[in-house]
Amino acid sequence: MAKKRVFSGIQPTGILHIGNYLGAIKNWVSLLDDHDCIFCIVDYHAITVPYEPAEMQNRIFDAALGYIACGVDPEKCSIFVQSDVPEHTELTWYLNTVIPVAYLERMTQFKDKSEQFRDNVTMGLLDYPVLQAADILIYKAEIVPVGEDQSQHLELTRDVARKFNNLYGETFPEPRTLIGKAARVVGLDGQAKMSKTLNNYISITELPEEMWKKLSVAVTDPSRKRRKDTGNPDICNIRMLHALFSIEKEQMYVVEGCRSAGIGCLDCKKILSDAISREMAPIRERYEQLKSDRDKILTVLEEGAKRCREIAQNTIREVKKKMGLLR
Ligand code: TRP
């Protein structure tokens, strides 16, 4: 039986952090053996908000490097840059003609970003979800592993597929959203989703000393003010990170210690810091090794784009035929 196709992407917004790693990339790695995986660096999406053009190529390179260092083995999947396959924008145009504007105006990410970039609410920002639908549908992907925050975009992707199929005949499968164990990784402020822009993150290449600096001031259960106060691990962000990095025994120890004031928050953080280092050290080493092998990374991206272009061009031909655009 043919392997099911998986598609996902991340924006090149600088060094990857453990939120990206836990929320998406770790999940990708677990799919490599039994699926036909395509992973994309979505630069067309990244330009829908103000950005620094001179930095873009570095960020793309960093994203590719980060994927591979985290275990996304290019021997087992395709990794490519979105703008290397311009057919994504062509399909976006066709899909634009089947999706009502009202569907896009009510997307929460659009509303949030319109708030954030008040003087810069562009067509690109509004159309962002249709481009995302095109990314997925152009490969007829069936499974899309993403963080919880992308659920609404995937819902829209299915709407687009359904509408297109109804109008022009069965063409696209409706893709399934696959949300990993870490649906939403909260940042060190204990409030917002971990993100580069909010500076509440631990990067995938963070050195142990740097990580400790960040963790030692990270927010915990705010009602636990003194060492002898008991804490509530269920609302503590450090405990959530323990659940994702620590072994069972460590988790039981910190949860028990927090409830009984048996250990302090700093002790708890120290155990977490060691657990994160344990998992991330090999990734950091691979990252440092690969960094100097620029040609290898560029070759991976070239080969990825070559394969994806072929698939994308086939879909475009099929779509144009169905839409009556092929002579
Ligand atoms: N919007 C996604 C994010 O911000 C990135 C993305 C673009 C994506 N195209 C995609 C994710 C296609 C999955 C599939 O995380």
Please specify the SSE layout and strand pairing.
Elements: E1 4-10, H1 18-31, E2 35-41, H2 43-46, H3 53-69, E3 77-81, H4 87-96, H5 101-105, H6 108-116, H7 123-137, E4 143-146, H8 151-168, E5 176-179, H9 208-216, H10 237-245, H11 248-259, H12 265-291, H13 294-322
Parallel strand pairs: 1-2, 2-3, 4-5
The protein binds tryptophan.
Tryptophan binds next to β1, α7 and β4.
Summarize the structure.
The chain is mainly alpha-helical and 327 residues long.
Description:
This protein has 327 residues and is mainly α. A 3-stranded parallel beta sheet has the order 1-2-3. α8 links the parallel β4 and β5. The two termini are 35 Å apart. The model has no long low-confidence stretch (mean pLDDT 95). The structure holds tryptophan. The site of tryptophan (TRP) has 14 residues, from β1, α7 and β4.
User: What pattern of helices and strands is seen along the backbone?
Assistant: EHEHHEHHHHEHEHHHHH
Radius of gyration: 21 Å
In CATH terms, the superfamily of the largest domain is HUPs
| CATH architecture level-2 label of the largest domain | 3-Layer(aba) Sandwich
Q: What is the name of the CATH topology of the largest domain?
A: Rossmann fold
The description of the largest β-sheet is: 3 strands, parallel
Q: Into how many domains do the coordinates divide?
A: 2
